[in-house]
Design brief:
The structure holds two protein chains of two kinds.
Chain A (H helix, E strand, L loop, with lengths): L1 H12 L27 H15 L2 H4 L5 E5 L2 E10 L5 E2 L2 E2 H14 L4 E12 L4 H18 L2 E10 L7 E10 L16 E4 L5 H9 L17 H11 L6 E5 L5 H13 L2 E5 L7 H10 L13 E4 L1 H13 L7 E7 L6 E4 L5 E4 L12
Parallel strand pairs in A: 5-6, 10-13
Antiparallel strand pairs in A: 1-2, 2-7, 3-4, 5-7, 8-11, 8-12, 9-11, 10-12, 13-14
Helix pairs in contact in A: 4-5, 7-10
Chain B lengths: L9 H14 L4 E7 H9 L2 H4 L4 E8 L1 H4 L2 H11 L4 E5 L13 H6 L3 E4 L5 H8 L4 E8 L4 H13 L5 E8 L1 H10 L7 E5 H7 L4 H8 L3 E4 L3 H17 L4 E3 L11 H10 E8 L3 E10 L8 H4 L15 H5 L31 H9 L4 H6 L5
Parallel strand pairs in B: 1-2, 1-7, 3-4, 3-5, 5-6, 7-8, 8-9
Antiparallel strand pairs in B: 6-11, 10-11
Helix pairs in contact in B: 1-12, 2-16, 8-13
The chains are: A alpha+beta, B alpha/beta.
Chain lengths: 366, 374
């Protein structure tokens, strides 16, 4: 009997959907491990097997950064995000600006104009009030700069030791302009892949602030609201906004992870050019030292856009004129071959696969 | 970026490949010993750049991969203890033992910490006097000086709550094991640059002479590796079997004397088990008698743990260059970095993981579309 059960499970996982098998995919981990929050394959498994399988609906199944809902003739973009970061203050930002910009960006990546945010705070007993005020001041400034209003919220306090100073969840809504229809399944062969600047700044900044890693750098997080940049890009496309296939902000999991998601959902291949991907020397240096790959390091103020070849030059030009996109580049293109797979032409002329990570990126031993 | 870009130049790479092509008259099988070289080769796609007939096989030099299963189980037993802070290099955390990995022990409440330098354990030990701090001291000669320094300083500082779980291995006995195997196919070696930066390369000279096999001590950047291959192919074509140094900007024949002296004060050569290979005599380090009180195996009474390896995994043959990851029926199906059966699938330096991440899907057709089919 037990042997039979094992067989069913294997078949379900192989996608065969054996008759009489359990309708819910089986989640294999007895406990949540940190890798489930990495943005890599473990996260995808958690989302699919625990959440999507139970909440299943056509909007959720799109798995975009935001849900786009038609309400009373208006297309509303809707998204939510939780923020946990140590330390809560870091060069270039803090958990407050991150919480506002992160949600603004998730809306903007659907081409939406972000309008209203909610914020929920889980505060740890003992958090100095001055630190909370600093965080909230920073949120107010970020909201003003992004042109959104914080219109509702909630606070809870947990016992000392049950939280890490402050956790913030923000939810946002915005309106999607007519004609804009971006989704991860819309990339097609011939499309160009644009990136709005240096990658890895945020992740390496946070890493450099953590205990036990003693390297100094003048590096700052790139934490920023991208809705202004997106506006400029949409404007440059003029009447051809249809040419915007998909945009993503490569946060945790980095550029490699979002490109793999898009390639997978659109069933297309991608070819990147390593030499076109901008990485600051300080980020490269830290990555070389720690054995990390900047393609998987988090960004909080960058976007990746897949656009039709006809509008690519115009859009790229507009990005470069914007202060948040001055270092924008075309880093590759969408191809018909090897669907679901991202390849990269390396600097020395070789080729490699840029895969999705499984869990957290682990520093190499030597 | 200075000191990096110079060694990753595409034009120079193409010229080196052309020179290899001109020198080479027949097929050669070359082993890169070090896991860092394997990583660089697949990450930069160097294996696809080389002329047809130059076959690179991946050697036993991934420290994470060769750490035996029983050591992993010992580490897990110690890390599960309530008053222990267990420090480890990052990529040891996902190595599967008989029952889960260090990540799962962490999720169950074990205090497992990634350290970037073994010496971080000294700070952790001082800050947590009521805890036992154990460092998983693994690696080849490269990590030996830093691990030895941890033991040395812990003793100097009189820290009673620091110990080391030592699983150190040495490169020359592994090369000897590869060459002594009746199935050996390897005709030349790219020697391990970082290992030789510590210990020099005098130990490699008798190996080259005895087995009549050329060894070129080589660095880790793409151009280093291509130049190393060129030097090796030149030797092979000319019938020479010498030890040459491609990585002269970093090391010389004698290596780093102060590091060698420190290693000798703390460690002594001993027999070691290698994952997937088995016992190799005189192939590793253990703590010297004077430092034995820092031995975590004794302190936590885990010496008796003795685990057998699972039989399905062919990691042993891969580590010896007899087989390639593709030859394993479990590769990419039963065995993935998400659910590794063997350690070569775990570390980014492991041959199986490197193939999976960077080269797994590459078919000749895909390479042709990229303009470097061969």
């Amino acid at each position: 009997m037990s042997a039979g059960k094992v067989d069913e499970r294997e078949e379900t996982e192989a996608g065969l959907g054996a008759f009489g098998s359990c309708p819910l995919p089986i989640f294999e981990h007895p406990q949540i491990v940190l890798g489930h929050g990495s943005g890599g394959k473990l996260s995808a498994e958690l989302i699919e097997k625990v959440f999507v399988s139970r909440f299943r609906n056509s909007t959720l199944e799109k798995m975009d950064d935001q849900a786009v809902l038609e309400i009373g003739g208006t297309r509303v973009a809707f998204t939510t995000d939780s923020f946990v970061v140590t330390p809560i203050f870091f060069p270039g930002g803090d958990i407050g600006s991150l919480a506002v910009n992160g949600t603004v960006n998730d809306l903007a990546m659907g081409g939406a104009k972000p309008l209203y945010l909610s914020a929920a705070f889980i505060l740890e007993e003992g958090l100095p009030a001055t630190e909370l005020e600093r965080v909230v001041d920073s949120m107010a400034a970020a909201a003003q700069s992004a042109g959104v209003q914080l219109v509702t919220g909630d606070t809870k306090v947990v016992n000392r030791g049950k939280g890490d100073k402050v956790f913030i969840t923000t939810t946002g809504i915005g309106v999607v302009p007519t004609g804009v229809r971006m989704s991860a399944d819309r990339a097609r062969p011939g499309d160009k892949i644009l990136l709005s600047g240096f990658i890895g700044d945020h992740g390496i900044t946070i890493l450099s602030q953590r205990e036990g890693l003693e390297f100094e750098s003048a590096l700052e997080s790139d934490c920023a609201a991208l809705n202004g940049l997106v506006d400029a890009m949409l404007e440059a496309a003029g009447g051809e906004v249809e040419g915007f296939r998909v945009m993503r902000d490569p946060t945790r999991g980095g550029v490699a992870t979002v490109l793999n998601e898009i390639a997978g959902r659109s069933r297309v291949g991608m070819v990147l050019k390593e030499s076109a991907i901008p990485v600051r020397d300080s980020v490269r240096g830290a990555c070389e030292l720690l054995g990390l790959d900047p393609l998987y390091v988090a960004n909080e103020g960058k976007l990746v856009a897949v656009v039709a070849p006809e509008i690519a030059d115009r859009v790229l030009g507009a990005m470069r004129k914007h202060p948040l996109g001055a270092e924008s580049r075309a880093i590759g293109e969408v191809v018909e071959q090897h669907p679901g797979m991202v390849l990269m032409k390396t600097g020395v002329g070789g080729t490699r696969v840029v895969d999705v990570l499984f869990g957290e990126q682990l520093p190499r031993i030597c | 970026m200075k000191y990096l870009d110079e060694y990753r130049d595409g034009d120079i790479a193409a010229k080196l490949v052309e020179r290899i092509r001109r020198v080479q008259t027949r097929p050669w099988v070359i082993m890169e010993v070090c896991g860092g070289q394997t990583h660089s080769i697949v990450k930069n796609g160097i294996d696809h750049l080389l002329p047809k007939g130059i076959e690179l096989v991946h050697g036993p030099g991934c420290p994470v991969c060769v750490t035996p299963l029983e050591m992993i189980d010992k580490a897990h037993a110690i890390a599960r203890c309530p008053d222990v802070i267990f420090g480890s290099f990052g990529d040891m955390l996902r190595v599967p033992g008989s029952d889960g990995d260090l990540f799962s022990i962490k999720s169950q409440g074990g205090d497992v910490r990634v350290v970037y330098s073994p010496l971080d354990c000294l700070k952790i030990a001082k800050a947590n006097p009521d805890k036992q701090v154990v460092f998983f001291a693994i690696g080849f000669e490269t990590t030996a000086p830093a691990n030895a320094m941890l033991a040395w300083q812990a003793r100097q500082m009189g820290l009673k709550n620091v110990s080391l779980l030592v699983s150190h291995v040495l490169v020359p006995p592994a090369i000897e094991a590869v060459l002594s195997s009746p199935q050996n196919r390897v005709q030349g070696f790219l020697g391990p640059g970082h290992v030789c930066a510590v210990v020099g390369y005098t130990e490699y000279e008798p190996l080259a002479a005895r087995f009549h096999v050329p060894i070129v001590v080589t660095g880790f950047e793409p151009l280093d590796i291509l130049e190393g291959v060129l030097m090796l192919v030149e030797q092979l074509e000319q019938g020479r079997a010498e030890v040459e140094n491609q990585y002269s900007r970093v090391l010389d024949r004698a290596g780093n004397r102060p590091a060698q002296e420190l290693i000798a004060k703390v460690f002594e050569v001993s027999d070691r088990k290698w994952r997937g290979v088995g016992m190799i005599p005189q192939s590793g380090f253990r703590l010297r008698e004077e430092f034995r009180e820092l031995d975590a195996e004794a302190r936590f009474s885990v010496e008796a743990i003795d685990t057998m390896e699972p039989e399905v995994c062919i990691a042993g043959e891969i580590l010896q260059g007899i087989k390639k990851p593709h030859d394993c029926p479990a590769f990419g199906t039963e065995c993935t970095p998400q659910r590794p059966l063997g350690a070569t699938m775990v570390s980014a330096e492991g041959a199986c993981a490197a193939y999976y991440a960077y080269g797994r899907h590459l078919k000749d057709a895909d390479l042709v579309t990229l303009g470097n089919g061969r």
